[in-house]
Automatic annotation (TrEMBL), chains A, B:
Keywords: Amino-acid biosynthesis, Aromatic amino acid biosynthesis, Cobalt, Lyase, Metal-binding, NAD
Stated name of the protein: 3-dehydroquinate synthase
GO molecular function: 3-dehydroquinate synthase activity
Entry EC number(s): 4.2.3.4
Pfam family, one: DHQ_synthase
Keyword ATP-binding appears in the UniProt entry: no
Cofactor or coenzyme needed: Co(2+); NAD(+)
Boundaries of every 3-dehydroquinate synthase C-terminal domain copy: 197-323
EC primary class: lyase
């Protein structure tokens, strides 16, 4: 059949900045970014959508932003700072997504203007999706406020909302124009939220960087004690590994391989089953423990290394398993979750396991009996394991 | 401010096929494409969404598709062929978009499966948008059935729906995985629809390819007579120029320049004001005439060449102006349309004019008095112009 071949490449570039006190008047970094971004003669407007819990924890933030843009004028601030709830709720209820679109329309935010989101991964996902589709893409700036979003989801290229009760059913691959990680936001996090974000650092170290895993082991106490320089290093290294992965073979996930989903297949199901009462990082920590022990049982990572992984997870303060992760029969939720994950990937299962610390390996089948045994070991025998 | 630099390129490739009788059993091109596309072990499903007027004009089409996939099995056909209205209506009412999402969900269409749309530009835009955001992108195949969509919008990388009463307010830049142009669909078009698509060929010739313009002049009679080989050449050359343009500097329109929007700023307003009773191509033909005469009045294209442009538009059978394009005062709809276009572009106006046939030039201001005079010339004096 006769045809014309189309082929072109699109270059995507953005910076993930690291700062402290982003909207302090003396900190010109944000304004400098806007001033340097694009040479269009158009007026650049900027709209802020902020997690209401972040506003509550940082009661001066809205005024601080207004003052900042009254002095630093690279962009024209939309004076209304939009407050919205954070958490999974904001991705479940389409009304929040629609409201962001409505505000983009109301304030004539165009392709040369900015929609900035301040908050955790959920609000960044939702606002990022709205920004990606309004006018086929207005400029989106992410200001993640949690450990999890600063080191992982916030620096990536995905956005989404839930739909038909399915996580991330709607979304796009559209990078932000910039990410600003401000360590001051970490100060107001609860211990539980703070800890939760460390799971993704453990995950990425296990599949990409053994030295980073060793660093995590050596610095576990400082992380638990919320030592800020230690956390800043963790976030930067984790973000860097994440960014490098995206820039690798398949930024927009055209293939089936999802190495960064290590430990996630069971975690997604657990979050859903507990109605997100188990936090994402908590679920991922359990998922990592499960897939690590499974990796050992299926002849991959050594028992010594598996023990080091489980022990690090425990040392950070995570639970290592959950009753809903137990296999009690063919219809156990976790096996249904595995089936759903297979369907989500389009029929061919691809699961990342561990060859050893720092080296992952993809498999296309998982054995239900070994999943069961891995769960039992985590539940019953981890005293033995951790005694090694 | 400290930062990590992210940069990567994403390669986009797709073919625009030209065929006759796409779903005839002997034509294996479509099946060959699916069989060769991706090496995933997953089952590939395919869902068809078809313009109901196309189904009416081609009453055997649905059965033909079912028979085709019962013999050629590279993809598993979803037996339900979804019929939807064509035209702008389908982009205005979000219900159609939601229904496509619901069907994608219902039949578990995933990233390795296909949503094919058969119809004109509007239904391709809407279905393409749904496919782009479901699961962050399922594979989308376009089968354009009109001259306009086969030579222009159908081969491009944009999709959209209207929202808040604004044309294309929501959408993405996501290329299809393939386009199939089947000339058999052109046989059932009305003369008006058939003619309408020729406007984009005139447009692209004027800004890109003087030789193609001369070919259009030489073949105007054959086009009016609906000679098929002539139309096939027109569609292929126009699609090629369009594809080459996209593959050029700015596929996803990050800048303000929109050369392919030559003649479109007034056309968009006219379509909207007439509630799309004036077809897109008809409005574009008038928009080209206006901007061509304006180009002459503002010291660019010669009067001889401007006359050739207007005469070709007339010879194809288009009207060259419309009462709603007249400037009668500062609040004339066309001047409001110009203002809206400026806002749509983000404050800086960029309008393509003609330096000469085949060579465009961008300007950032338009003179209301010259727009008025151009309209008057088209209305009153074109007899004189065309006598040259």
């Amino acid at each position: 059949m006769e045809y014309l071949q189309q082929s072109f490449s699109v270059r995507f570039e953005y910076k993930t900045f690291f700062t402290s006190g982003l909207f302090e008047l003396s900190n010109t970094g944000f304004n400098d970014f806007i001033a340097a971004d694009s040479t269009s003669a158009s007026i650049k407007k900027i709209l802020f959508v902020v997690d209401q819990d972040v506003l509550k924890a940082n009661p001066k933030l809205a005024d601080q932003i207004r003052r900042y843009f009254s002095i630093h004028k690279a962009a024209q601030l939309i004076p209304e700072i939009i407050a919205m709830p954070g958490g999974e709720l904001i991705k479940n209820d389409e009304g929040f997504f629609s409201r962001v679109l409505q505000i983009i329309n109301q304030y004539n935010i165009d392709r040369h203007s900015y929609v900035a989101a301040i908050g955790g991964g959920s609000i960044l996902d939702m606002v990022g999706y709205a920004a990606a589709v309004a006018h086929r893409g207005v400029k989106h700036i992410r200001i993640p406020t949690t450990v999890l979003s600063q080191n992982d989801s916030g620096v990536g290229v995905k956005n989404s909302i839930n739909y038909f009760g399915k996580k991330n059913f709607l979304g796009t691959f559209v990078p932000p124009v910039a990410v600003f990680n401000d360590d001051q936001f970490l100060l107001t996090l609860s211990d539980r939220d703070y800890r939760s974000g460390i799971a993704e650092a453990i995950k990425v170290s296990l599949i990409k960087d053994a030295a980073f895993f060793e660093w995590l082991e050596a610095n576990a106490d400082a992380l638990v004690a919320r030592d800020m320089p230690t956390m800043k290093y963790l976030i930067k290294r984790c973000a860097e590994l994440h960014l490098n992965h995206i820039a690798g073979l398949d930024p927009f996930e055209k293939g089936s391989s999802r190495p960064l989903d290590f430990g996630h297949w069971s975690a997604h199901k657990l979050e859903q089953l507990t109605n997100f009462k188990v936090l994402h990082g908590e679920a991922v920590a359990m998922g990592i423990a499960l897939d690590t022990v499974y990796s050992n049982l299926s002849g991959r990572i050594s028992v010594d290394e598996a023990n080091r992984v489980v022990n690090l997870i425990k040392k950070i303060g995570f639970e290592i398993t959950h009753p809903l992760l137990e296999v009690t029969g063919d219809d156990s939720p976790i096996l249904i979750g595995l089936q759903e994950f297979r369907e989500h990937l389009g029929g061919e299962l691809t699961i990342m396991l561990l060859e050893r610390i720092g080296v992952g390996i993809e498999v296309h089948e998982m054995d239900a009996q070994l999943i069961k045994k891995a769960g039992e070991i985590l539940k019953n025998e981890h005293a033995a394991l951790s005694a090694v």
